[in-house]
What does this fold into?
Amino acid sequence: MDSQGLDKLRAEIAGSRSKDMPCITVCGGTGCHAYGCLKVAQAFRDEVRKRGLEDKVSVRQTGCHGFCERGPIVVLQPKGIFYQRLQLADVCEVVDKTVLGDELIERLLYSDEATGKKIAAEHDVPFYKKQKRLILGGNGFIDPTDLADYLALDGYKALQKVLSGMSPEAVIAEVSASGLRGRGGAGFPTGRKWEICRSIACGLKYVVCNADEGDPGAYMDRSLLEGNPHSVLEGMIIGAYAIGARSGFVYVRNEYPLAVENVTKAVEACRKQGLLGKGILGSKLDFDVKIFKGAGAFVSGEETSLMASIEGRRASPRQKPPFPAQSGLWGKTTNINNVETWANVPWIVRNGAPAYAAIGTGDSKGTKIFALVGKINNTGLVEVPMGMKLREIIYDIGGGLKGGKKFKAVQTGGPSGGCIPAEMLDLPIDYASLAQAGSMMGSGGMIVMDEETCMVDVAKYFLHFTQEESCGKCVPCRIGTRQMAEILTRITRGEGSEGDIEKLSAIAKTVKAGSLCGLGQTAPNPVLTTLRYFRHEYDAHLKEGRCPALVCKAFVTFGIDQVKCIGCGLCLKACPVKAVTGQLKKPHAIEQAACIKCGACFEVCPPKVRAVTKETGKTVPERVQP
Amino acid sequence: MKIIIDGRSFEVSGEETVLEAAKAHGIDIPALCHHPRLAPWAACRLCVVEIKGRNGYPPSCNTYPEEGMEVVTDSEALRSQRRRTLELILSEHPNACLVCTEKERCDEHKASIRKSAEVAGCVFCPSNRRCELQKLVDRLGVDSVPYDSVYRGLPVRRSDPFFIQDYNLCILCGRCVRVCHEVRGAAAISFVFRGSQAVVGTQFDRSLIAAGCQFCGACVDVCPTGSLAERLARHEEPAEAKSRAVCPYCGVGCGLEVSVLQGRIQSAAPADGGINRGQACVRGRFTLRDVVHSPARVLKPMIKKDGKLAEVSWDEALDFAARGLKARAGKTGLTASSQLFCEDLFVLDRFGREALGCGGATPSAGVSILDELSAGGMTGRVLGSLKSLPEAGTIVVFDEPVSLTHPVAWVSAFEAVRKGAKLILAGAASGPMSRHASLCVGLKPGGLPHLIAAVSKALLEKGCAGAASVPGFEAFKKSLESACVSRLAEAAGAAEADVRGLADALAGGGPIVFLFGGNLVGLPRPLQGVALLWNLAVQTGATLLPLAEESDTAGSWLIRSRAKSPAPSLSALSESLGKGDLKALYLAGPMTLPEKHGLEFLVVQDSFLNAACAWADAVLPAAAFAEAEGHFVNLEGSVRKSERAVPPAGESKPDWWIASELAKRMGAPGFSYENAGQIKAQLDKEGVLALPAPGVSGAGVPPPVGTGSGLPAEGKKAFVPASLPAPCVSGDSPEHAEAPVSGEQGSDHYRSLSLCHASPDLALLRRSRRTGEARPAAKTAETVTAGGRQ
It folds into this structure.
């Protein structure tokens, strides 16, 4: 099909869809899947069919809406009525009242935490209000398995624009002017990368979409591939045209089955419509994409490792230079960009570089998707303009911390990133400020931690992760991460010794300076930033025998307040090791030597009583071995 | 280009890394994972340097010079980074001895504590004083390890032959894995698991033997630590002396560095540089000690007394043998092994002609490829060399499992494959070869001549007439006129598409090399097979590299071809046995004698007791190759000098000495040699081996082949007459008896000794390959063998 054919097809699609026709969109993201959205969507379809409304109401399973905390999410278009936590039992009522009638169902609406007001429209929900959803926005409207939905939202218009007379150099200039930087972590200017690839004379070039998202807590690439795969493919086709590649790969984790399925379907649909293959849209551009399923190692996301994996070798990074542009897949020039980066490209081409560059800060343009997780009220994917303050993301969009707890730190950039303390909540989020704070943009994970989080424990968690996920090739990363993880484990177990902190920072520096790839070079960041901002917590563990957050079991003691205890016996029943003793209606006590510090007594003690205490800093008697 | 290293300016080519460039100028940057033969790996992070304008510490082993680059290889920051990295390495390596303050004096006091089951420190380690890690610790001055030490507690793998794998000592430099993949093309080992669990291992944790390892020993040779230790030598002290011998088994003639301890061979490792460039095969690497010090060695001269062999003095034995032989002069046969030095063969050949009157020494291995080439008048082609093999664009292997029979030739071929050459196998294919081949043409037994003819015909049909001006082309074309590609392909047992694919490859791709060996010669109409192949080579412009089976096949041919009347062939000699014409036989090369051989007098001159000794009237003990010095001419025609490593076993004497003593006693003049050097001088004087100019001789430097070396390579190239092979009716054509089922490979013997007989480990390997049986997996074997083989 040529470009005019595509315009015609788009017009046909628009013609067949009335703007006022009610459409029930059910979020089909992985989070909502877990809540049972498939059944909800099917129930809507059945309900519509049962009532013979197929011509009047459409039901669509879309991509992820982002507000995963509140799934399953149903948005009723065209009014944009936002129903959250919708259960199967609600389906009938929704069709009756809201779709056919004009009545809102109060209990399904989002209620503002602060004011308690019910909010009907999706865009009025505070979670969405401050976001700028250039890239994620399409997810809520598109059935990812239906090319028509993407076309209806001006999909592939950017490609048409590029193929209707833009030279590859002009495309690169446009991307460069937009200021787009790689969204995978390192933030290399995308236009510059393309320019280098373009400038190298190589008969065969490849473009690769890196969808091996592996940071704990980050899932924006997954949502994009699952929810709007065509935007990624369109970006890749434009990129291929710009650098002169004829073949591309989407390297996607096999742990993302839905992403694999949807992107595979999208590629097939593109081939069918002449958007991939020989002579794309009647132009001279030949380009096709293969889906490559990753073998499940975190390090496969490192670009040289990813290429090794595609070539059929062990996913182990190699020293750069040569960079992939100089020697990539099978020694050929290769351009690797992250999913989100590719998805930005069509928007830039469609709306022009100035429009994109108008968003963001000096050196960080456009928007960035973050996976907001942890101890936060509104867990989900948020897309915000670069330069937004942490405080706005966490409090305005994220709705603050769960249970009104005190904010302690936010960990950005996954295991390679660092922990940013409360004092820096007004830090604007862009590449430079994050790096300055000792963290990094990474792929956009944002883990919020409250006062009940022990920072030494957090560092330990991330070091255990990197230690296991290191490929094992270079010495500093393989052994250094293990040594750091072991020292941290020792500290959290109360077995730390003097000099541990010095040892930690010495290894951290060695690993950072000496490692072969990005994984090792950034692996010490959680240690270095926690040492920088939370040194007092380390000291508390080492010198005072205390875990201020009451997390590390070695430093925690449970006790029963003899005055408060009413002798209800709940704790006695809950204790798995019979460490709680006492008679009914009389104050109980905990035998410290037998206690395994599971916290079951603490959990079950009635809130009104609160007799079980959890303390730190007390001398712990040796546990008696039976 | 110019680069500045540590303030000094150097001119460099830009092709070598900063590490290599610095080393070439005397600046030695510490490194562990770097190996000159392997691609940069950059894993040990010890070779880090500072480069002006670059962030951090780039590894010099993987950094290539750029114009004006300023490199600092030594600074306080670098020293501290290296020391810390080494400390990390040591935290996972038994380090008690490495950082021990008494380590200097320790050696004086220890006796044999190295015989411990698990290596807990250097004094227990087979690599003590040879270990690169140990040297580096001394050099960087690391005297403590501030981190918790970890002993990984991996089971020591003892179930495989030849060497023991203790990955508790491994520092994961990856050299073994890389040499196995990059140089040998075997890929038997790889990294398994990741992170701190990462270790070198095999697929599904099978034993090496089950994983298809050829036990070439390349991994053992590149290992910087004691992780891989040769089983036989692991409890021994480092060698007292080393000498350079040439491997006596196959025709490649690898240089070997023979380690000697207390007058015995301790082990042999491939010599750096030279023809084999640091590579060897299982035979040369691991069987030398077992062969030279085999219990089957003949230690004293013996003569038959009262129907039994009895040990006597040399004089008595020589007199007895001389008398017996002289009485039957003119009716005596002489065989010589082509694994003897040129010096020995020359004297034996002279002894045969001048004392025995038998027309020279008959090679005991039978007709060689060189005999066939010269007999067919095939001259004018320059024989290929191992050195030029890596530059080939297309390599066709004609029914020869090169990676088994000539593993080091395979290494050169594989180098070409890594550079992008096409590898095509016609017929036999062994493990690593078939994995890297772009085309495998199936063959049925005896089908090779048909295949060659089919390819020639297919090329003619394609109209590739590049050789039209070569003499004999018309006759060649005519001889194929009636041929039909599909019928020939069918007769060969090959698919017609494969034949045409092979023809297409030959019509295209770059310098073509044909590798072929004994399988082509051994065919029922031998000459025809070689002639057909010759014509195909002339037709395509290919170079021939015949894979001689024995170490001195070419030397033997050169020595025999200097005389006008040839010695009888082995088959002619066999036929004359029992007919009464042949009264006596002198075996300086193994020969199978029939029960009724009808010989009156039999002399066996060998290093080992063999079947023929049962009938022998005299047995004369010959020194083995490592016990004498001499020269071999290898398959590409280069003359390779082998040094003496150990004194001759018992009373054995060099072959040339025995033959000349006999000749003297039989009254032949001109046999008063005092040492091998005199014979070599005579060979040089007569130009028999056509040595290159003085100064370039010696192990490892091949002379310009075909420029007068006397190998069949002179004159103008021309097609030779060859008829179409008769149609091969079916696979079981009567002309082609089935090959004997034997695990042994072509050169699995030294003189009359079977290497499998000498080395139980080799026997185990060959048996497992023949039957496909594998030894039990390491885990179960571990318990069984814990007390046994250590």
About this structure: Chain A touches chain B at residues 297, 299, 314, 316, 318-319, 467-476, 478-483, 486, 503, 506-507, 510, 513-516, 521 (CB under 8 Å). Chain A has five domains: 21-129, 147-356, 367-450, 455-543, 553-616.
